[in-house]
Amino acid sequence: MVQVRELEPVLCQAGQTSRVVWTSSSNARRSAFNLDDVQHRRGTEPYASSKYASDLLSLALNTHNNSQGLYSSVICPGLVLTNLTYGILPSFFWTLIMPIMYLVSWFYSLVFFYSMIVLTLFVSTLL
């Protein structure tokens, strides 16, 4: 957010449209985030908290800067298999479990979509 604020004069130039894209997660949860503890020093779920903070930042940027041509979006890449995930369990297990994981991912995408609507309403009440 600091970087976006520093680049605001460049991103919000007249006659120009700019976009900022944040990477979030279906693990982002409001219950893990506390506005009085934005550094998450007293919490137990720093990942979920930081992803929810990214969602809030995107909404705040849109609320304050859309009229100046700055648009913010959040993406959630979903389940990603990496060398780390293959190192945890054998590859045949991932082959068997992937259809189930994709269904779970699809379900969480729906939950994420509806939570973003609730989040938008929440942020609009704060402003």
UniProtKB/TrEMBL annotation:
Family matches, as InterPro entries: 3KSR/17beta-HSD, NAD(P)-bd_dom_sf
Keywords: Membrane, Transmembrane, Transmembrane helix
GO terms assigned for molecular function: 3-beta-hydroxysteroid 3-dehydrogenase (NADP+) activity; 5-alpha-androstane-3-beta,17-beta-diol dehydrogenase (NADP+) activity; estradiol 17-beta-dehydrogenase [NAD(P)+] activity
GO biological process, one term: cholesterol biosynthetic process
GO CC annotations on file: endoplasmic reticulum membrane
Record-annotated membrane-spanning stretches: 69-89, 101-123
Protein name: Uncharacterized protein
Protein source organism: Hucho hucho (huchen)
